[in-house]
Amino acid sequence: MLRSQLGRGSRILAKITTTPRTYSSASAVGATANAGQIIKTFFNRDSTTVTFSMEESDKPVSVCFNNVFLRDASHGANLVTTGELYHNEKLTAPQDIQISQDGKSLAVKWQDGGVHQFPLQFFLDYKGSSFVSPATRKQESRFQSQLWNKEILKSNIKDLLSVNYNEFIDAKDDSKLFQTLVNLQKFGITFISGTPSSSSEGLTIQKICERIGPIRSTVHGEGTFDVNASQTTSVNAHYANKDLPLHTDLPFLENVPGFQILQSLPTSQGEDPSTRPMNYFVDAFYATRNVRESDFEAYEALQIVPVNYIYENGDKRYYQSKPLIEHYDSNEQNTLLSNYETLIKCINYSPPYQAPFTFGIYDKPSDLNNNPDLNLITTPAKLTERFLFKSFIRGLNVFENHINDFNNQFRLQLPENCCVIFNNRRILHANSLTSSNQKWLKGCYFDSDTFKSKLKFLEEKFPHVK
């Protein structure tokens, strides 16, 4: 509770500011959030209530805001930390509040002399109601993820294949860059055709990546890396001389790269293009939703049981434990099955890097009662993990059956001079075995924060694109 210098009998410092307003229907004003107006306010030393109209509601609505929140959101000359607000009531108690003549903003004068003007849009952004669609978090995209199987993705393939390298790289026109990022936001995967045929493949993929943001350094180095399926020993599971199973890249890192770019290199002299491997892609979000629909108990186990991942090579030692499924914080909207794509955060699934389990690995002997001299050293707490682990295995089986179903896989031999960009935390990828000893792909990574930042910037630049 905030400390008060007021006496008990003078706790409420209230004032009502009211301005006559007329109301218009959404159809008359137009479908914009700014069609609303601030109607009136009421404040005391703890909170401020704002009543305003908006096009999503037939009648005015009211929201009561904590004054610490409002002052913390006030970016003025008198900058204070959130902690200071707790100890100084003058910083958080309004002295006066005035509504602008057009009802589009609210000026708050604090008792320490600080003044801040809140636009109507601020109250719309932070109203917190569940019956409207605009996101309250600025980093959320207006484009919703679309879960897919092979049929669904192929029905959208025209959009996914419509971006050319020269258009994408044009710094004077961001429209194709925006389309690429929207494709990634919706489907987790997209393609760029017409990459240059030259010996400077590393420079090409670097330009593609840096159009979005900086290349992410990993255990593969600071820049790009080569993919050669026939190489038998390497620092990278990509090079194993066998079919590479569907997987997430680099799950042994605490901060797993969010996105990967793979560029198909030109064929070398004498190389048979048909010997190049097939690339497989699967929407793991679609697979986990399938588990949730069919066996919710198993689905919950996939969120809890830690899977261990390890990487040991040379002087490098990496080890992480993560559940297969990670969620965003739950709310009344994203827990609905129809809004599952706003609940699921990322997938951790990578058999090539998986280490032995350390959870649920012990069982209780069936003949324990008949062997009183059996000195069982496993603690009861560790024994009870076996029940959750059995649900985990059941869920994992449903998950793997889904991702290995041909009808859920998008397969292609990546065309020469083409690149694919995909979400490494959503899209599982794999390739088939090849007898070729040629490198056929160049790759690199970039982070999710980089992607979200550029997408949000371009959403502001192209506000009418849907």
UniProtKB/TrEMBL annotation:
This is Putative oxidoreductase aim17. Belongs to the gamma-BBH/TMLD family. Its cofactor is Fe(2+). The keyword Iron applies. Keywords: Dioxygenase, Iron, Metal-binding, Oxidoreductase. It comes from Saccharomyces pastorianus (Lager yeast). CDD domains: CAS_like (cd00250). InterPro entries: AlphaKG_dependent_hydroxylases, TauD-like_sf, TauD/TfdA-like. The gene is AIM17_2. One of its GO terms (biological process) is carnitine biosynthetic process. GO terms for molecular function: dioxygenase activity; metal ion binding. One of its GO terms (cellular component) is mitochondrion. Gene3D superfamilies: Clavaminate synthase-like (3.60.130.10). PANTHER family: GAMMA-BUTYROBETAINE HYDROXYLASE-RELATED, OXIDOREDUCTASE AIM17-RELATED. Residues 173-445 form the TauD/TfdA-like domain.
